[in-house]
Amino acid sequence: MSRLKVTSLKTKGRMTAITVLAALACGVVPFLSLGLAPLPVQAQALPSQQSVPVLFDARARLPKPDLSVLLRLRFLTTVDFPPFSFLDQTGHLTGYNIDLVREICRELDVEAKCEVQAVPFSDMEIALLSKHGDAAVAGMAVTAGLRRDFAFSRPYLMLPARFIVPRDSVGKADTPAALAGKPVGIVNGTAQEAMLKAFFPAIVPVGFADQAALMDALKQKKIQAAFADGLQLSFWLASNVSAQCCAFLGGPFLSQQFLGEGMTIMVRKEDGFLAAAFDYALVSLSRKGRLDELSRRYFAEGFY
């Protein structure tokens, strides 16, 4: 099982809680109460007036599931996936996915029954199959192999690819079409490299060993632009390292073929009713604007 390729800023928090550290040494964090009383294959750029991709039909009216028979609803996640799930400075599990679980449980009227447990990502699949949890929300990349044993909710977040250019060149190039014949940096071996070559053949790709080298070359204007993961770029733009040198150009660009189906919630195949329940909650949260609010809370710079 693989995780969606997301690289973000490392949280400044450390695992300071002794009980959490002891549990991690054994490979798991105990269940914690929440404490509440497909896209087309081609690359698609969102319209300029659209801030986020529409993942749910606002007119959809799915039947509300009855989960009253559940004794508890246990979500599995990890502690090493900031900003989606990580331990804060006090040792508490937090992040986008944790708040999303809270919202889902509230929408399904099962707040008191919801629990979250952190396990190593490598153990996520076996933990779910052995019924140590009921749902996994940890950025799993949906594959044909996983679909043999698991069912998935609709995606709640898509991770786009973006172009980024020096800020003083934004007015000179309004769209990626202006980059034809010019050197654009990519990280070797990434999905974004393959995507650039497939959908922007007029651009001259320039490979770099890692993201740091790519960003350094862009700041020094050794390349005209860079093409990389939009979420990672948004964190970099917001950091002091960027020195406000650069800005997004065009896009964002989405491609299920290269970037996957997006972030979903995984359940055992026989528990497909839970995936349907999560779909109901996600559609409802999207219609109410709660998913947009959640994204703005964690991604202030925005990556769409």
TrEMBL record:
GO terms for cellular component: periplasmic space. Its main location: periplasm. Keywords: Signal. The keyword Signal applies. InterPro entries: Solute-binding_3/MltF_N. SUPFAM superfamilies: Periplasmic binding protein-like II. It is found in: Periplasm. Residues 72-302 form the Solute-binding protein family 3/N-terminal domain. It comes from the Bacteria. Transmembrane segments: none annotated. This is Transporter substrate-binding domain-containing protein. It comes from Agrobacterium vitis (Rhizobium vitis).
